[in-house]
Specification:
Largest sheet: 4 strands, mixed
Strand order of the largest sheet: 3-2-1-8
Strand content: under 5%
């Protein structure tokens, strides 16, 4: 058997060294200064051009080289086609190769590109086999081993997509010491993703920090932003994730990286849907679909389209989601299979169909069990209040069963995430970092009111703050107190800023690196679900009035609006449940509402109707007598005591 062709070591030229060091412009200059001959220098020149985003020029050089007899130029040209989303052209080049004329380097590149094409098409088993073969060849070939970080990055990408993040990390760590800054970049962002998915946020942050400190080419910037988005989303900071994915999509569009743009747009759609912004989610999904390359991306877009239909209770949405889960199973995308079942479970949970929700939930747990250490599905559960409540309920009852793996993941996720800033404004005043109270050198009440006002209004001028938040202070005293409160808050809470925009003359709140858990926002999100569980959750959060000791007009308006919204949504859902013959669910929700609104006749009437439908006339009569007692007690007292013991006027 003849030895495979190899590139003569004399071709390891200054152009190649500039390419390996990430000095792509220098590589161009070095090639221009050389004589016109130098076949392999032209290959390295083409790769420099690719990294600079000049793929058309690179393709022109490589196709001419192949026509002149250098077969290795073909698999390298396939890289350029793949980068610009022309997967069919890349596949055509690879299918037409004369393997007997390839060097070991060219053959290794060809196997890596076959892997990446199979990966884009969702053929993950085939992608893994090809990536492993490319790695084995690269390890032993003199020239290919110079590019070993690139081969490791491809193999790690496939392994991590298969849920084998630990194995992916092993290959990355083996190759990291061998690469220049430019070669290390793909390894570091893939490693950051592996570690973040495993819940190792400190390790992921360290990898991202190393990337941030490295000189990156324009082609690397979109991918760095994309992986920052993954990190922020798993950390539970959706605002930062949206900013990162938005930056990734914009940079990818500028540099023609279709695949990166697709996945960034799809991620933006998922986050928008989780936040209840279905219109925005549809816009992002449309952008992703318009640029989709490969069946894997198409399958993920199909899943998100079905999820959006489910969020609006479209008929047939669950059947579409089941079909997506089946297709994703065929593609071997285990994490995404779990995501599909989580969306199905959440859809049932929001509809109050707990039995069906638990069945789907267990299918999600089965998909999770096929993965290594992984908190991505737990993060999806945490972003869906109805499903999270169902999981918490099962844990409290000791009936987790196969769901225990997701429960443990959720616990790990909460331990690994930075401590949330917990803002309490309903029934009292509070500010905590996780379970620890924030110690301020200013009054807690006024600091909480300042934060709440800015969060509600998004931004405010000094005059507005003086008028509404510090209305009992003289203007200069209000200004001084504002600056003291800003300094005290930002000093006590890492990541919290209250910057002043001099151009627009407004203050706002910025919180980076940690989630914000504000009871008002949580109550509004629960109401937005439009479910009995959501209303009950909101009623429990509204255990007392908004900023109870504030006499400010804006606080009174927010107080009234919250209470009215709770009553309005609750009455609508109660009537709908009773019309659908589900008085038991209506009864549980109405009891929670009556505790908040004990003097609302409509709630008492609906509760009596629900009891009559579910328990009969005798129980309904007892309920009516109890309601009369509650109404007499509440209406006879000019100052009433709420069920939580606080007085209301």
């Amino acid at each position: 058997m003849s030895e495979p062709l190899r590139i003569p070591s004399s071709t390891h030229s200054p152009v190649l060294r500039a390419l390996l060091d990430g000095e792509f412009e220098e590589g161009l200059q070095l090639r221009e200064a050389m004589p016109s001959t130098g076949t392999w220098d032209d290959v390295w020149l083409a790769l420099c051009l690719m990294h600079l985003g000049r793929r058309a020029e690179a393709l022109g050089i490589l196709l001419k080289l192949r026509a002149a007899g250098l077969e290795d130029a073909a698999p390298v040209a396939a890289i350029a086609y793949r980068f610009e989303g022309s997967l069919e052209m890349a596949a055509e080049l690879l299918a037409d190769l004369d393997v007997w004329r390839l060097t070991s380097f060219g053959e290794a590149v060809a196997w890596r590109e076959r892997s990446m094409l199979a990966f884009a098409s969702g053929r993950l088993t085939e992608a893994l086999a090809a990536a492993q073969r490319a790695w084995r060849m690269a390890v032993i070939d003199e020239t290919a081993s110079l590019f070993l970080p690139g081969f490791a990055s491809a193999l790690a990408l496939v392994l991590s997509t298969l849920g084998q993040d630990h194995a992916a990390s092993s290959y990355i760590r083996q190759a990291l010491p061998l690469g220049s800054s430019a070669q290390r970049a793909p390894l570091l962002w893939t490693l950051a993703g592996c570690l973040a998915r495993a819940g190792d946020f400190e390790g992921a942050q360290e990898a991202l920090n190393q990337l941030q400190a490295s000189p990156l080419s324009p082609q690397a910037q979109p991918l760095l932003a994309y992986h920052r988005g993954i990190f922020a989303r798993l950390q539970g900071v959706p605002e930062e994730a949206v900013a990162a994915f938005g930056q990734a999509a914009a940079l990818a569009r500028q540099s023609g990286q279709l695949e990166t743009e697709v996945y960034a747009a799809a991620a933006l759609s998922v986050i928008a849907a989780e936040q209840g912004n279905v219109a925005d989610a549809r816009v992002h999904l449309s952008r992703a679909r318009h640029r989709t390359v490969g069946s894997r991306a198409e399958a993920l877009c199909d899943l998100q389209a079905a999820a959006l239909q489910a969020s609006e209770d479209h008929p047939g949405a669950i059947d579409q989601l089941r079909s997506c889960a089946s297709h994703l199973t065929q593609l071997g995308l285990r994490r995404e299979v779990g995501e599909a079942w989580i969306v199905i479970a959440d859809t049932y949970a929001r509809q109050g169909e707990d039995t069906a929700a638990l069945t789907a939930f267990k299918s999600a747990a089965e998909a999770r069990a096929a993965l290594g250490a992984n908190v991505t599905l737990a993060a999806s559960v945490d972003a869906r209040p109805a499903l999270r409540r169902l999981l918490v309920s099962q844990a409290a009852q000791g009936t987790l069963g196969s769901l225990v793996i997701l429960w443990e993941d959720l616990q790990q996720l909460q331990r690994s995430r930075p401590a949330a800033l917990v803002l309490t404004t309903l029934g009292g005043y509070g500010l905590r970092l996780g379970e620890l109270p924030v110690k301020l050198n200013v009054g807690l009440r006024r600091a909480v009111e300042l934060l709440a006002y800015l969060l509600l209004r998004k931004e405010a001028t000094l005059e507005q703050l003086q008028t509404y938040v510090f209305e009992q202070c003289a203007p200069q005293a209000a200004r001084d107190y504002l600056h003291v409160a800003r300094h005290g808050l930002t000093r006590a809470v890492p990541g919290l800023q209250l910057p002043f925009d001099r151009d627009r003359g407004v203050y706002r709140v910025i919180l980076t690196g940690r989630p914000l858990h504000w009871d008002v926002a949580l109550a509004r999100a629960a109401l937005q679900e439009g479910t009995p569980g959501g209303v009950t959750c909101a009623a429990e959060l509204l255990a007392g009035p908004f900023l109870p000791w504030s006499a400010a007009t804006w606080a009174a308006e927010e107080r009234a609006e919250l209470e009215w919204e709770l009553q309005r949504v609750g009455v609508r859902i109660a009537r709908d449940l009773q019309a659908r013959g589900q008085p038991g669910k209506s009864e549980r929700m109405l009891r929670a509402l009556v505790r908040v609104h004990p003097t609302e006749l409509t709630l008492h009437e609906l509760l009596a109707q629900a009891v009559q439908a579910s328990q009969g006339n005798d129980a309904a009569e007892l309920e009516k007598k109890h309601s009369q007692h509650v109404l007499a007690r509440e209406l006879d007292d000019p100052v009433r005591t709420r069920p939580d013991g606080k007085e209301t006027g």
